[in-house]
Design brief:
Layout lengths: L2 H16 L3 E7 H5 L8 E7 L4 H12 L7 E7 H6 L2 H10 L1 E4 L11 H26 L5 H20 L6 H4 L5 H8 L6 H27 L1
Parallel strand pairs: 2-3
Antiparallel strand pairs: 1-2, 1-4
Length: about 220
């Protein structure tokens, strides 16, 4: 599908539906990165000044009216909720969203290095916990694709933390990270115990690296 045509139509429809209440519309995920496949979801981000029951039902009705309704997902919220969101989660939302209508960063508090650090630490800790449990107990290698996918987002934030350059597309990111992280970025269908251990080792190293930075900041 032509995502540009779809998003233009979406913007026009939501402006008719919400008027000045629509503060931002954007696109996340593989379509925003230019890596979409035929099976890819369309990840919309909509921010409203007011987003209560009435607005959510209007938005739901609009989405349900679209031929693409079964592949549309994403995030909708009111501005006050977004501004009060955890800084680490909000940073990932802002950085990962391609604007279609207005600028999301201008609506939110500035992203700090601590926000980025905590986003990396949260992501790597969750991956470590899930990987360790799976290796010890479940031994279900079918969960590895989702864990590797989560790791890719965390690797992207880690590179941004170190370089100040946000690289959206994973194929481009793979050309600037080390070999271990490149392997994680380029492994499409992990399904073995060895690949589970690769992920666990990466998560462990990242936690120690970023956690040490966090501890040093607290001591200063």
């Amino acid at each position: 599908m032509d995502i540009c045509i779809f998003m233009k139509s979406c913007k026009e429809s939501l402006l008719r539906l919400f008027g000045d209440n629509l503060l931002f519309l954007g696109l996340q995920g593989s379509y925003a990165r230019g890596e979409a496949k035929e099976t890819s979801d369309i990840d919309l981000v909509a921010i409203l000044q007011k987003c209560g029951k009435e607005e959510l039902l209007k938005y739901r009705t609009y989405i349900d009216s679209l031929p693409e309704k079964d592949i549309i997902c994403g995030f909708i919220a009111c501005l006050d909720v977004l501004r009060s969101w955890d800084g680490a989660d909000r940073a990932q939302l802002v950085l990962d969203t391609k604007p279609v209508y207005k600028n999301l960063a201008e609506l939110c508090p500035p992203i700090t290095q601590d926000d980025i650090r905590r986003a990396i630490l949260q992501g790597s800790c969750a991956i470590y916990h899930a990987s360790s449990h799976n290796i010890r107990h479940a031994r279900n290698w079918s969960v590895l694709p989702e864990l590797y996918k989560s790791a890719r987002f965390t690797i992207r934030m880690k590179n941004y933390f170190h370089t100040g350059i946000y690289i959206s597309a994973f194929r481009d990111l793979a050309s600037v990270v080390d070999e271990g992280e490149k392997t994680i970025l380029e492994t499409n269908y992990p399904n073995t115990e060895d690949e589970a251990f690769i992920l666990l080792e990466w998560a462990s190293d990242t936690i120690k690296e970023i956690g040490t930075n966090c501890s040093e900041s607290l001591r200063k």
